[in-house]
Design goal:
6-stranded mixed sheet; Alpha-Beta Plaits; 4 helices; globular
Length: 172
């Protein structure tokens, strides 16, 4: 950024990498999310949880396939920055929180550096999947900027304000 740039301090701009992350996430998940939204609209009691996560100093590409269930869908969003999404079918809010806690614990046990995790659940299609993804990316960008590593954040359109920290992996 140029030092003589004149930008409003309340500007809504995001770094290029983060905008590309949002685009990649929408592009990668679009057909899958459309299918799940179809199922949620046509079946009772369908739910899913989406987990966006990254970890420094760890190859998640080798570990996440071992940790996920057969019904979970894994997406690699950014191999260089080690960013992944896990879409968990038939998983409610509590199940999503528990799985995210397990993932964070496993990453810590395998020596991950700074880890970032945002969880969102959906059991209705009131909001578009793009809204859900954009809210998750916005929270992810925020926690990375604030260096709030090794915590799981939960986003929901049912909650007002910032997401709750639901798990903390303290470094000893």
């Amino acid at each position: 950024m140029f030092t003589n740039e004149k930008r409003d301090t309340h500007d809504i701009s995001f770094p290029e990498e983060e905008v590309k992350l949002a685009k990649t996430m929408v592009d990668e998940l679009q057909t899958t999310m459309e299918f799940f939204y179809y199922l949620m609209n046509h079946r009772d009691k369908s739910s899913l949880t989406i987990i966006l996560l990254s970890a420094d100093n760890m190859k998640l590409e080798h570990l996440l396939p071992k940790w996920k269930r057969k019904t979970d869908i894994l997406f690699e969003l950014d191999k260089v920055n080690n960013v992944y999404v896990v879409v968990c079918q038939s998983t409610d809010r509590e199940g999503g929180k528990q799985f995210a806690e397990i993932l964070m614990s496993n990453m810590k046990m395998h020596g991950a550096g700074a880890s970032y995790c945002v969880v969102s659940d959906s059991n209705k299609t009131t909001f578009t999947f793009q809204d859900v993804i954009f809210k998750m990316v916005e929270k992810y960008v925020s926690i990375k900027e604030k260096k709030q590593a090794n915590k799981v954040f939960f986003t929901s359109f049912d909650q007002a304000g910032d997401a709750d920290i639901i798990y903390h992996t303290a470094r000893s």
